[in-house]
Amino acid sequence: MASNFGLKSLAILALTLEICVQGSLGGITCENLNKDTCAFAVSSSGKRCVLEKHVNRSGEEAYVCRTSEIEADKVTDWVESDHCIEACGLDRKSLGISSDSLLDSGFTRKLCSTQCYNGCLNIIDLYFNLAAGEGVYFFQNCVKHKGEMRGEKWHRSEALVWWHQGQYQG
């Protein structure tokens, strides 16, 4: 009877460990991403990935993907799509995370375009938070450019509802 209980306990422990290992192996770890997938990705822990460039002693450039301390809002295990990178005017080889690009009106125009603003909420979340850190309300920045984007429909409120309900598919 005691050995039967021990076998059941061992089986339960083995099953639990298998589930835990599968869950941990399936997520995105920034340090495992290459330079073509790192920028704008989000790890399984919800931290944003950042691409860094190092120059070796020999002068050779090496790119490294690292986990930043910046948390994404309601996003985990995310590698941004090529569609969103293009629609938002981004570059896969962007180094670091910075709000400097928000000073470029051409970049802001692309970021505020319907394709980016309504369809690439991971990117919008990132730049919304970067702008807020600088004391700027991102949506007002897009409204400023809205006159230049007549004919485009904004469905930001619908997209945000999908985002917060976890239904957004990017």
Write the layout of secondary structure elements.
Blueprint: H1 2-25, E1 47-55, E2 61-71, H2 82-87, H3 105-111, H4 114-119, H5 121-133, H6 138-146, H7 156-164
Kindly list the characteristics that best describe this protein.
170 residues; alpha+beta; two-stranded antiparallel ribbon; 7 helices
Describe the model.
With 170 residues, the chain is an alpha+beta fold. Helix content is 44%, strand content 12%. A two-stranded antiparallel ribbon has the order 1-2. It is globular and about 45 Å long. It starts with a helix and ends in a 6-residue tail after the last helix. Mean pLDDT is 75; it is low at 10-24 and 147-170.
Residue share in helix: 40-55%
Low-confidence stretches: 10-24, 147-170
Taking Cα atoms only, what radius of gyration do you get, to the nearest Å? 21 Å
Largest sheet: 2 strands, antiparallel
**Mean pLDDT metric:** 75
Q: Strand order, biggest sheet?
A: 1-2
How many β-strand runs?
A: 2
Sheet/helix structural class: alpha+beta
The SSE order reads HEEHHHHHH
Strand % is: 5-15%
How far the N terminus sits from the C terminus, by CA atoms, comes to: 54 Å
Principal-axes shape call: globular
Summarize the structure.
The protein is 44% helix and 12% strand.
